[in-house]
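Dear colleague,

As promised, here are the two records you asked about, laid out in our usual form so they can be pasted straight into your sheet.

NAME FIELD: protein one
SEQUENCE, THEN STRUCTURE:
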Amino acid sequence: MPRPYPSEFRERALELVRSGRTVVDVAAALGIAQSCLYRWKQQDLVDRGLRPVTGRAPSAELTAANRRIRELEEENKILRRAAAAVEQVVPPKERFRLVGELHADGVRVRKACLALGVSTSGYYEWKSRAPSARSIRHAWLTDLIGQIHEASYGTYGRMRVRAELQRSHEVTVGQNTVGLLMRRSGLVGLPLRRRSKRVPNQVTVTDLVRRRFHADGPDRLWVTDITEHPTREGKLYCCVVLDVFSRRVVGWAIDTTQRAELATNALGMAIDSRRPSPGTIIHGDHGTQFTSWAFTSRARNAGLLPSLGTVGDPYDNAVVESFWARMQVELLNRRRWVTRVELANAIFEYIEGFHNRRRRHGALGWDTPLEFETRHRQLATTPQLKFRGTGS
């Protein structure tokens, strides 16, 4: 029987719905059933006094109308994506082809050309000559690459785009071709700005990792850390617990303060959702949150082994530092955040909807964390799956 979603997960999902996102959109982004999110939404309306606890069941007409509304929302979303693809990444030759398809459906050529941003004379000239197989393939690839780049929040470069093409779409294409088509479309990935500032080491006796970020299976080595980011209302703090084996964030907590409860709540989510075997290492830094009695006792009661790196050295927690650096580039620094709720919702969706489910990692052979864990379970009866080192 599947374990229930953590209360923090449920509340953040509802916050996304309250912000104006559709249930269909949020459910797809987080990988949960629409019916589940609809139940949460209805119960939330009851809890907030916006809907009576009891009442007559909705009529068949109302049920059918609501179903049609959901279908129209899905169709509208598809049309918006299609329009954005046409305007931003589809070359003129491909748009000419779309004009021909629309004309076959009864749309006038002049109207179709105007909507797609091409000239009627250019369309008729294109129609009079047959396009080459290469140009057709490049047009198709450009469209697909644009969709992949958009789904990655505009963060993927040519290597991750190519990996997504091969893994999710079974398309064989060279890295140079992907780079060429991305340049033609004005698509670029977000480079990671690496920080190498260090302070002198202070040796501790509780470092069980010693920079050996290697795990032969899931839930054997966890790393944890806290980051902060400003909004106009003030700072917001986020703590994550990350499984080194799959790079999956297995626990997280978001709060307006960075007291010990922040780290303890993130650890509690990881323990409740993963049920690790005794001996799992939880590695952090010397922040007061991770040296507190509440955190260490929660870890030891679950059979975990607390570990602390040297003071002031980010390399002693390199895996989670790499995660923060990527989140800064791919999410936090891309805009100014007005409210804490707005930022908290964005962080939640980045972790659960993008990083764990869709972001491809070089250290995992370009798998996503969920794909990597699934592959490991499938190969459980074969020779042990070897982890391929630290990556971003």
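NAME FIELD: protein two
SEQUENCE, THEN STRUCTURE:
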Amino acid sequence: MQPERIIKKYSNRRLYDTEISAYVTLDDVRRLVKAGVKFKVVDAKTDEDITRSILMQVILEQEERGKPIFTQEMLEQIIRTYGDAMQGFMTRYLEQSMAVFLKQQQAVQEQMANLIQTAPASIYADLAQHNLKLWQTLQEGFLKAYSQERASNPRSPDGA
């Protein structure tokens, strides 16, 4: 198992990733989270673990861009649970709800990937087969109609 990646936050608010020896942005931290990389952010001066604070900043940055996940009403409801007897329950509930949601999302994505990989070929083959049958039926109909018309209107050998 790979050791936890350490990111240091300096007093100038810059984040330094010790694994790659480079300064990183909140967007880089977001990419680490999305990639499932385990890391810890520490205050460079005190060695205090400030990971949660940085993750909250990442969420805030994402909420300010595009379409937010949290509505104002939802944020107000979350704030109301702080200090409440149900705060611990709320934490576990949200964690478990997110875990279930992510599992379902992954299952749907896998099903869609399988559908895309397998279904188009069979769908196109079925569609081609169906179209071929329609074409054959149409041709038979034309030939039958043409034969019936020729039988009812025989022409003379000289075309008149």
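A couple of things worth noting about protein two: The CA atoms of residues 8 and 86 lie 34 Å apart. Residues 93-153 form one domain.

Best,
R.
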